[in-house]
């Protein structure tokens, strides 16, 4: 199985880089696909800090966590991680 067609997300939408979509940020109409390049949390379905929705580059933040993991998350997930003290210390 490849990453072009990976099933469906929690909202029943097809996921994988073969599926054209628009950014999940409210009001944003940027054209994306539902592949890993645009997923919050770095993996379909999200992770501990990512919601698993799909966002354009303007609405994803490359983030380093205290465990040294680096991934991309949306603005809302970044705010949660920041509030919970999960982000790496500023240098």
Question: What can you tell me about this protein's structure?
Answer:
The protein has about 90 residues and is mainly β. About 10% of the residues lie in helices and about 25% in strands. The protein has one helix at about 75-85; strands at about 15-20, 30-35, 60-65, 70-75. It has a two-stranded antiparallel sheet. A two-stranded antiparallel sheet has the order 3-4. A hairpin with a 5-residue loop joins strand 3 (about 60-65) and strand 4 (about 70-75). The longest helix is centred in the C-terminal third of the chain and has 9 residues, at about 75-85. The relative contact order is 0.17. The model has no long low-confidence stretch (mean pLDDT about 90).
Task: List the defining traits of the structure above.
mainly beta, 91 residues, 4 strands, two-stranded antiparallel sheet, 10% helix
The helical percent reads under 10%
| Order of strands across the main sheet | 1-2
- The tally of helices reads 1
Low-confidence stretches: none
Tell me the major beta sheet.
2 strands, antiparallel
Say how many strands there are.
4
Mean pLDDT: 92
> How many whole angstroms does the radius of gyration measure?
13 Å
Give me the strand/helix succession.
EEEEH
Q: Supply the helix-strand structural class.
A: mainly beta
Beta-strand fraction estimate: 15-25%
Euclidean distance between termini CA atoms = 41 Å
Shape: globular
């Amino acid at each position: 199985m490849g990453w072009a067609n990976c099933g469906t997300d929690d909202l029943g939408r097809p996921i994988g880089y073969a599926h054209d979509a628009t950014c999940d940020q409210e009001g944003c109409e940027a054209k994306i696909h539902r592949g890993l390049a645009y997923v919050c949390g770095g993996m379909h379905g999200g992770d501990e800090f990512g919601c698993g929705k799909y966002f354009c580059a303007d609405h994803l933040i490359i983030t380093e966590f205290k465990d040294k993991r680096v991934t991309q998350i949306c603005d809302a997930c970044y705010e949660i991680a920041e509030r919970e003290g999960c982000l790496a210390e500023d240098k």
